[in-house]
Amino acid sequence: MTDETPSKTCKKCRLNKPEAAFGKDGRGRRGSTCNTCRNEKRRIRGEHIRRTRTRETPEERRTRLLWFNYKLTPEQYAALLAAQSGACAICRRKPQANKRLAVDHCHVTGVVRALLCTYCNVTVGAHEAYRDAVATYLATYGAGNPLLNQ
């Protein structure tokens, strides 16, 4: 009777290694690629991502993110900006020279509403998130704190 540890063959390097050299997935099953080959693949992929991201200009990144986040083209953003005369849709202030207006959108439906300055965009988001709590607070303390009216 032999006392051998269980082993597997890596599908990448084709070497027979102990099962402990293979990582586990979320269900506790061993992978088909050894840790050494898996780490090498991750290292190469990470280098590729860093190389491609550094070649991306700021304008290309902005175009990619506008489309990825809001399904907007730069031309559509420019059209919204022109329709708003280059100013925030709420406070009507123009952004500083090196700033852009944020794309306000519904987080449930994804529908783009307008372009807002950072302050107004954060305010609208907070209002949506805490609308009921603010209404309750104002109903309770709108005329002042009842404990202080003695």
Describe what this molecule looks like in 3D:
The chain is α+β, with helices and mostly antiparallel strands. The protein folds into two domains: 9-55, no CATH class; 58-141, 3-Layer(aba) Sandwich (His-Me finger endonuclease fold). It is 45% helix and 15% strand. The chain is built from four helices and six strands, in the order ββββαααββα.
Short summary of the structure?
This protein has two domains: 47 residues, no CATH class; 84 residues, His-Me finger endonucleases (His-Me finger endonuclease fold, 3-Layer(aba) Sandwich), CATH 3.40.1800. It is built from four helices and six strands. A hairpin with a 6-residue loop joins strand 1 and strand 2.
Name of the level-1 CATH class of the largest domain: Alpha Beta
Please tell me the overall pLDDT: 87
The CATH topology of the largest domain corresponds to His-Me finger endonuclease fold
Distance between the termini: 90 Å
- How many domain regions? 2
CATH superfamily heading of the largest domain: His-Me finger endonucleases
**Assembly type of the shown chains?**
single chain
Order of helices and strands: EEEEHHHEEH
Q: Helix proportion of residues, in percent?
A: 40-55%
Give the strand order of the largest sheet, numbering strands 1, 2, ... along the chain: 1-2
Which CATH-level-2 architecture of the largest domain? 3-Layer(aba) Sandwich
